[in-house]
Design brief:
alpha/beta, globular
């Protein structure tokens, strides 16, 4: 088999103070960096240390959008820990390190990428040129340029909202989900309700 992971909705740049959510959670630059490190080490450990014969031809790392939180809502623009450009650069650094670690651990990395809705540079979502009006499309191309000489890493960056790809004869469609027109899901049944 081939391990596959989805990295989505990091919302890099968003600030959630613990005091405003009854101390149940928090999100800031330090927490975000800790989560990325834990994601990478846990993914490697699960695939390598918890399997009987962990030999793989590589790994698929899906980048599912909303990697940055953007400034599409007034409250985000007021409370984010950085501007959109700062979010872009910071998450790019984190992704470079994380993708490099995946390549070192698995040899080959295939990275299908789709944009989310938070990285857009328009207040309302557009259908035409949607990918081009999103900072994440640029982020993915910058990552591809960074790894251009590393033959272990391959990107799929479509000019649309969905990425179709095949792994070992199985077809996949990666989408952020905001274009489904069903307002997401809920905390109890997740996406099952809207999908059904």
């Amino acid at each position: 088999g081939v391990p596959m992971t989805i990295w989505s909705d990091w919302h890099w740049g968003e600030s959630v103070p613990a005091a405003q959510v009854a101390g149940v959670n928090e999100y800031n630059a330090v927490v975000a960096q800790q989560r990325v490190k834990r994601l990478v080490t846990t993914t490697i450990a699960l695939a390598k240390d918890r399997m009987v014969r962990p030999t793989y031809p590589g790994i698929v790392v899906c980048l599912g959008g909303d990697m940055i939180t953007g400034a599409i809502h007034e409250e985000l623009a007021l409370t984010n820990w950085g501007t959109v450009q700062e979010q872009f650069l910071q998450v790019q650094e984190q992704l470079i390190a994380a993708i490099g670690a995946m390549a070192d651990a698995f040899g080959r990395v295939f990275i299908p990428c789709v944009v989310g809705n938070h990285g857009r540079n328009t207040m309302k979502s557009h259908f035409k040129d949607r990918a081009f009006q999103n900072y994440e499309w640029n982020l993915y191309h910058q990552l591809r340029r960074h790894f251009a000489k590393d033959k272990r890493i391959q990107f799929l960056i479509p000019d649309e909202t969905d990425a179709c790809f095949t792994v070992l004869g199985h077809r996949f469609l990666l989408t952020h989900g905001d274009t489904l027109g069903v307002k997401g899901g809920d905390g109890i049944i997740g996406a099952i309700g809207p999908i059904a």
